[in-house]
Amino acid sequence: MKRRTHLVATVVMALVGIATTHAASDDALTRLREAQALVEAGDHARAERRFSAVLSTLAPDDREARAWGHFGRAFARQQLHEAVEADPQTLRSIVEEYRLASMLDPSRYLVAANFNSGLILRRLGEHRLALNAFLQAATGNHAERPRFVLNAGREYEALGMAEQAADAYIRSIESAPGADEPRRALLALYLRHRWDERLLVASRSWSTEQRLLSNINYALMELLQRKNPAAERHHAEAGLILLATNHARVALSPSDFGRSTSLEYAKVAAVHPGLQAPLRALVAAYAAPPMAGHYFDGPDSHWWKEDDERRRTWSTVLLSLGNTYWLQVKHELAASYYEAAIGYSTPYRLQSWVDLEALAMLAATYSELQRMSRVQQLVSAVDRWVAEKAPVVDSQRRAIRDFYFYAGVAYTETVDYAPAEALYLKSLGFDPRFAEAHINLGFIYQGNLDLAGAIDHFERGLALDPTNPTANNNLGFTTLIHGDFVKAIKYLRRSHELNRALLVTINLGDAYRYAGDVDRALQFHREARDGIRERGDDVRYMSTRWRYNYMPLQAGDTRTIQHNILVSTKDEKRAFVHYALSLDETLAGNFEAAQSNFDLAKSLAADSAFRCFFANKIAAIGGFLRVPPRSKQWLDERRLELRRGLVCEGS
User: Given 59, 93, 124, which residue is the final one in a domain?
Assistant: First the structure.
């Protein structure tokens, strides 16, 4: 409590010297300073009365003095009710007074008022409002910004948004490297979610992942050096194993990982012999896959069964090894380790969260291997298990939710939307607040041309996870192909801020083009071109497959957007970017650059499907933009060239 008081008092004190410039009388200023002095002395009851008395004498147009008075009184009241039971109405009235102070003089009181309001809203259990308040406080460069961000992280955690909480804790640590509180919060979050790969992937960017892992590693090493109860040691050990495989994901190269991580984990294994085998196996699996057998004899080996008490830890290793090979796009190997993790010799016994998590990843792996009959078998097995096990305990709900989600993804990838929809709905049955399931349902409904349903689920996903880049991109693209370019730009810009993936960058450039802002369109399409050059082998930047709808030919055209194209290869994605640049350069009057990009794009994706698709892109320009005559002539010629010898609907 003392630290919280110090924070707010410092903010108030910093404003006193500035606040003498307004038009209040000398007497009013003197009494405000006296009230402020009472706050600093900790006499909050008298301070509240003094601020109230001053406020009753101030003129309505003396905004700065009134702001000082309202902020001071709200602060004094907050401190009076800090250690005692207070009714919600009283607390909300304090929040309202902070709001009034910030409205009267936002330059001086907005930051402190938001932070203090956040503390009160947290006390009321209104975590989403508290989160918004802390995020507002953290928008500036205030000296206490690391603590504002830390508190935002706690609210993300209270709302079940683990990835966002982790990112907030990391930003707090990086802003104040010497602070222990955010690092402890990050470690506690990691240990609570140590089985949740998506928390660790933190797929916003490679740099985010490196930051997350380095901070968790620091805290875990510190934890392992203490004398801890056995249960806590076991959690830390299991956490360290997952950390090892996730370090592999962000290594600059396999050799870099082999050099740095081998040394690091050799030291840990020397202190904790029980970790030696799994750590060496993980290092070998990523650093030099052909050498993995030297340490680990493959999924049929039984070394992990040497100690039954560590069965769960060894299963975690197998799961982690499967994830490592999954990220190396070695799906056959990944499947073998997932199968070993769930004890494939006794199929689908589903005894622990590891079994269920491995089963979820196995469904995703079978999807990549196009083994849909296996996915169907897994779904039937889990359906039976859930029916027999009911009611399912909370510790299993998340893993089952994930299984149904990944099985739904498998059917989505094969464009078999009916079972995919059913599986996403099952996933939501185990967690109604699962944003990703809502987002994928939106994709299903978009594919079925149910615009209202798509927007409904995209918006639900965004409400649950406002910083989800996929939800923002999908909602932005849906509004783009329905001709609402201003709204599309809003969502796509947000997605681009969160994750500058190739697809998002292309979509944002397209939205600016059709909105008539050619300079911005060129900016983002050039960024996409440069991104492919620099990150063309990064699957998380390039993504896997895109299903891309045609553009409408005019406002209200819902027929043309029913056509779509599947984009899979790197060259096809490069073609997308260069076709986009050719259109932008034409509209900007740069015909030589336009022709160069057009010719390159056509050579990269010359089949009829792509020619018809880009003919549609050209046709759509005429439906929404006024095109200069020379540019129109160039576009018409290119459209005829693309359509030559073909029957292209929608272009």
Answer: 124
